Amino acid sequence: MDSTIEEQFTTVYRRHRVAVERYVLRRAQPEDVGDVLAEVFLTAWRRFEQIPAEPLPWLYGVARRVLANDRRAGQRRTDSNDRLADQPRQHDAGYAEEVIAQTDVARAFDQLGADDQEVLRLALWEELTPAEIARVLDQKPVAVRVRLHRARHRLRKQLNSSRPALPTGAPGAAVPPQEVTHARH
Fold it and tell me: How far is C-alpha 25 from the chain's CA centre?
């Protein structure tokens, strides 16, 4: 085995393992993360010649496909947003409004389609640019910008439509709708 390739692979692994692990943690059950991570880097090892100069978006794309394959194979994934939405609301004045706002965002996010959720996760959680997202999704950057714009619009619309009308003076009545933050472009 060529030690140069082994050293290069080791460098890629050490530099990007934590980022790929965080990516997977946000999309899979904790007990599945190790297996998915191992599959991602096994694929990277097998296709080492195909890894581009900036490997992180490529690795995210591999992780995305591994996760999709796992879902298609029937492995179950519990959605943390559902668990949050099912929790009883706290009425402690210190953080009740924050919990309500987070629950509203989680519910609105759950109402989006899987494609909208994924493009928003890549932009907001992974902090990828549209060009980097395009590489992960194997799409053109212009198409990703349009998808991102539409996903943000749909999330805002869900946030505005999912807020119950509160009587004046009720806890949370003065809380303005949450603005969806935009990732760097």
Answer: 9
Residue type, 184: R
Please state, in angstroms and rounded to a whole number, the distance separating the CA atoms of residues 112 and 8.
40
The whole-chain average pLDDT of the chain stands at 80
Query: For residues 139 and 130, is the Cβ–Cβ distance under 8 A?
Result: no
pLDDT in tens, 27-79: 988 998 999 999 999 999 999 999 999 999 999 999 999 998 888 765 343 44
Positive or negative CA dihedral for 26, 56, 73, 118?
positive
Alpha carbon distance 124, 128 (integer Å): 8
Cα 60 versus chain centre, distance: 11
